[in-house]
Task: inverse folding
């Protein structure tokens, strides 16, 4: 047999073998996002098409973190829809709390620090008296709890103090657990809803966000377990996953950034000498400057977020998760990468996030 022919056949066979291996390796990477994305869009379309809205008349909803930002806007939107709102504020005399009471007769402001058990218990007792025990309304109990209280923090993991890790977890994770457990008897009575504010950082872990990501990932797991357990009681559990809406909220406004900068400076100076030498003051300043600069790419309108929350509260078929694209532009890459994360190898995802400055 001609040696050249054998050599050519061998090369073709080797090429086909390599192509087969590459096809089997890379095809899922290409097809899985396409299949999952298509399935998600089809499901979202038919859910939206055939879902109906619950009648808001006589229904009460409790929302935490209403002093400003998403909580404030959600309280107003919910009251305009006909819901009666318990708006929980860290300071019931703040401008946001006073503004809510002035702008809507359907809003009742409650003082609540979600890290304090006594505040939560006082709110539970008050809400029970209004809509729990008497059964005055056609659907007694509390229709929905919206866990929204939270704040932002960015710094390298080594710089972040244990106090800061604990503070973020106390507010966003354990605050959510504390409030939800307190109001679950009233929610079960109404066969209502638990809606919790997560983030794209609940899907995607990013540098300089360890404390924030830990809290948001914890919220996701808590909500997943709660959804499974509450299904027996016909209680719906939904997670809201906003992308980049920092400029539309107060989370990175001038005042919030100054508070965050002071916390980072405190943590940096409390860190050991080795940590201070490795990172340096300039790198800490750059982290804060990057956070401030991100305002430019942020979405400016919170309506997509409040619409998602209201759908979770009032839809007859609420989704389990509501990813909400922020940013100015067609795609919110935090949301996109968050959905791709389970499908991509760690090293590939790490490199992608480094290139995209996540």
Result:
């Amino acid at each position: 047999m001609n040696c050249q022919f054998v050599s050519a056949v061998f090369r073709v066979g080797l090429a086909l073998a390599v192509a087969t291996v590459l096809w089997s390796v890379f095809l899922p990477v290409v097809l899985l996002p396409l299949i999952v994305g298509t399935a998600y869009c089809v499901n979202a379309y038919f859910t939206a098409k055939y879902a109906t809205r619950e009648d808001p008349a006589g229904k009460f909803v409790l929302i935490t973190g209403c002093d400003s930002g998403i909580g404030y806007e959600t309280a107003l939107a919910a009251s305009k829809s006909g819901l009666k709102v318990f708006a929980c504020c860290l300071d019931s005399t703040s401008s946001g709390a006073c503004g809510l009471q002035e702008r809507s007769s359907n809003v009742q402001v409650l003082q609540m620090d979600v890290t304090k058990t006594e505040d939560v218990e006082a709110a539970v007792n008050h809400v029970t008296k209004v809509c729990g025990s008497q059964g005055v309304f056609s659907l007694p109990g509390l229709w929905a709890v919206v866990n929204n209280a939270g704040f932002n923090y960015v710094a390298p993991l080594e710089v972040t103090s244990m106090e800061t890790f604990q503070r973020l977890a106390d507010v966003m994770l354990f605050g959510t657990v504390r409030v939800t457990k307190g109001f679950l008897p009233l929610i079960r009575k109404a066969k209502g809803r638990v809606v919790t504010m997560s983030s794209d950082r609940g899907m995607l872990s990013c540098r300089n966000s360890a404390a924030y990501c830990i809290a948001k990932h914890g919220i996701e797991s808590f909500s997943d377990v709660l959804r499974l357990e509450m299904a027996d009681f016909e209680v719906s559990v939904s997670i809201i996953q906003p992308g980049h809406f920092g400029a539309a909220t107060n989370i990175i406004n001038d005042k919030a950034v100054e508070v965050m900068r002071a916390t980072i400076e405190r943590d940096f100076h409390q860190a050991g000498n080795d940590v201070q030498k490795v990172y340096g003051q300039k790198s800490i300043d750059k982290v804060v400057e990057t956070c401030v600069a991100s305002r430019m790419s942020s979405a400016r309108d919170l309506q997509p977020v409040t619409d998602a929350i209201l759908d979770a509260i009032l839809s007859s078929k609420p989704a389990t998760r509501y990813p909400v694209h922020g940013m100015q532009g067609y795609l919110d890459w935090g949301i996109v990468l968050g959905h791709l994360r389970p499908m991509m190898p760690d090293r590939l995802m790490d490199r992608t996030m480094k290139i995209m400055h996540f």
In short: The chain is about 55% helix and 10% strand. The first strand starts at residue 60 and ends at 63.
